[in-house]
Structure formats: C-alpha cells, structure tokens
Write a structure and sequence with these properties.
eight-stranded mixed barrel, 13 helices, alpha/beta, binds magnesium ion, single chain, binds ligand C2E
Length: 296
C-alpha cells in the first residue's frame, strides 16, 4: 500500500517536473522570439524623496506580455535569459529604452523646475560578470548619448560577493563614467561589513522583507534601523523597498530613511502613465491621493 502510494506520488511528481521543464523550454524559445520581435517593454516605479517631498527617480522594470501566455514575470524569465545567453540582448534593450525614456522626462522645459530624475536599471549577475561589462556600458553610453549622471545600476548582494576583485574593478570603472551603483535587496545575501567598505557603491536598497516586518515587532525595526545607520556611516543613500502602508512610511520617516519606493505610492507605471504623471503640478500628491483610492 505504502509502496504503491509512493509510486503514484513519484509519478505525479515526475509528471509535474516534466511539465515544468517543458514550460521552461517553450518559454526560452518564445523569449528568443520576444527579443527579436521587441515584445518586451519597460514599466517604471517611482522612487520618493521624503526630504524634498518629490519623485526623485524611477526604477525600470522589464515586462513581457506574450500573446497567448499572457504576462510573464521577470522573476521567471530573467533567470531563463541568463541561462540562455539572451540576457545581453535584453540588457541592451532595457538600457536603450530607459535612456530614451529618461531623456524625454528630463527635458529642461518640462519638469526641470522640480529637479532632475534618475533611472535605476537592474543588472543581472550573468550580465554584470560578462567579460568587459564596463567597456560595453561605456560604448552604450556613447552610442545612445546618455547622461551617466542620471543612471543607477542595481545589482544584488550575491553578485557582489562573487569574485571580489573582478566585481570591485567593474564597479569602479562604471563609477568613473559617472554611473552610480546600488545594492539591491540589501540584507538578503551574505552581507559582511567588510565587503561594503571595499566596494565603492553609492546606494543600498533595503529588501522589502525587512520593510514588511516594520509593523510587527522591535526586532523587525532594529534590522532596518541598523541598515540605515550602516548606510549613513558609510555616506550611502538608503532606499526602502516595498513600502505598502502609511504606518511603514511613518516608521521609516521617524528613522530618517529619506528614500522610499513601494505600492503605497505606486506600482510600476507604463510610459504613458509616467508622461501624464510628470505633466501634473503635484505628481507626488496625486500618487498619495490615488494610492488611498486603490492606485493609479
Ligand atoms: P527588484 O529589482 O527587487 O524589483 C522590485 C520588485 O518588487 C518588482 O517586481 C516590483 O514590482 C516589486 N514591488 C515594488 N513595490 C512593491 C511593494 O510595495 N510590494 C511588493 N510586494 N512588491 C513590490 P517585478 O517587476 O516583478 O521584478 C522582479 C525582479 O525581476 C526584480 O526585483 C529584478 O530582480 C528583476 N528584474 C526586473 N526588471 C529587470 C530588468 O530590466 N533586468 C534585470 N536583469 N532584472 C530585472
Ligand atoms: Mg531592483
Ligand atoms: Mg529589490
Ligand atoms: Mg528582487
């Protein structure tokens, strides 16, 4: 009986695995086509500067809407893109698109009176570790006539822990171009204080799992507080990710966390939505207002 049960469980498991593998294989083929057909596009999530009470930048988030499969999360297709080598093409597309969109938003006659905006671009591990990544970026900057002052690259902590000397070299080179470096999902990797000192990064993003714990208990708060004081003492900007409610904002504000991002203000927006948002007199007030009534 038990044996039989075991067998049938194995069968089910096996079948599920088989289906999962098939999906991945199909997705990879589709992703290749998506890149060629330019089916991918970007959305932008606002980043808030509490001190100046304004939107100070956006994080570019890649989207894929397949004609039959519907929308597929980057959490699923980015790893696939890394394994298949498609990440370079996707990365180039994200860079080009983000730079082009930002140019439109940063025009002097537009929102310049509100200060300039930056864009955060996610760089995956495989992409970052490709030979001469910095040289490639230098070329892209020239090709697209980008202003690197307004560019920020996000890399996760785990990437930074790999091959320290290569990573440190790439980070330094990117910074000499003027690109700022940001550690994404900070606190989820194997952080050690020494690597932060050795790496010339500019910004850290507190992972949203820690922000989610802010309401709960003192312990939850103390992790965020210590990341903030670490950031402050190293002269880094700190962004809290995944801010979903006013209470979290309040606690973060009390801790003097200056930069916030999350569904409380807005989920990622289409280019057209950002266009109309930035045309408004008070974009942040608008986001706050609509957040209360269920988003943009
Ligand atoms: P990430 O860089 O940490 O991006 C933040 C993710 O959290 C986004 O998911 C965003 O939509 C989501 N998020 C933002 N605010 C909130 C909130 O208040 N609550 C909750 N629960 N979630 C929030 P998304 O867009 O699905 O992206 C997932 C991951 O995929 C990203 O994590 C990033 O690692 C990767 N990714 C996205 N776009 C790109 C890209 O252009 N290139 C690369 N290499 N990776 C990307
Ligand atoms: Mg990110
Ligand atoms: Mg993140
Ligand atoms: Mg993440």
């Amino acid at each position: 009986r038990a044996k039989e049960l075991g067998k049938s469980r194995f069968k089910v498991f096996n079948q599920r695995m088989h289906e999962a593998v098939l999906r991945l294989m199909a997705l990879e083929t589709e992703l290749r086509k998506a890149v060629e057909r330019r089916e991918l596009y970007l959305e932008y999530q606002p980043i808030i500067d509490l001190a100046e009470s304004r939107i100070c930048g956006f994080e570019a988030l890649v989207r894929w809407n397949h004609e039959y499969l519907g929308s597929i999360s980057p959490a699923e297709f980015i790893p696939l893109a890394e394994d298949s080598g498609l990440i370079t093409d996707i990365g180039d597309f994200v860079f080009e698109q983000a730079v082009t969109d930002l140019k439109k938003w940063n025009v002097p006659e537009g929102i310049a009176h509100r200060g300039s905006l930056y864009v955060c671009i996610n760089i995956s591990g495989r992409q970052f570790m490709q030979p001469d990544f910095a040289g490639h970026v230098e070329q892209l900057i020239r090709e697209w006539n980008a202003n690197p002052e307004y560019l920020r690259f996000e890399i996760t902590e785990s990437v930074l822990m790999e091959q320290m000397s290569v990573v440190a070299d790439t980070v330094s080179r990117l910074r000499t171009f003027g690109v700022r470096m940001c550690i994404d999902d900070f606190g989820t990797g194997y952080s050690s204080l020494s690597y932060l000192q050795r790496l010339p990064v500019d910004i850290i993003k507190i992972d949203r799992s820690f922000v989610a714990q802010l309401q709960n208990d003192r312990e939850g708060r103390s992790i965020v507080r210590s990341i903030l004081s670490l950031g402050n003492s190293l002269g880094l900007d700190v962004i809290a990710e995944g801010v979903e409610c006013l209470h979290q904002e309040q606690v973060l504000d009390d801790m003097e966390c200056r930069y916030l991002q999350g569904f409380l203000y807005s989920a990622s927006l289409s280019v057209a939505e950002v266009d109309s948002l930035l045309a408004m007199e008070a974009p942040l007030a608008y986001l706050r207002f609509t957040a209360e009534s269920g988003g943009f």
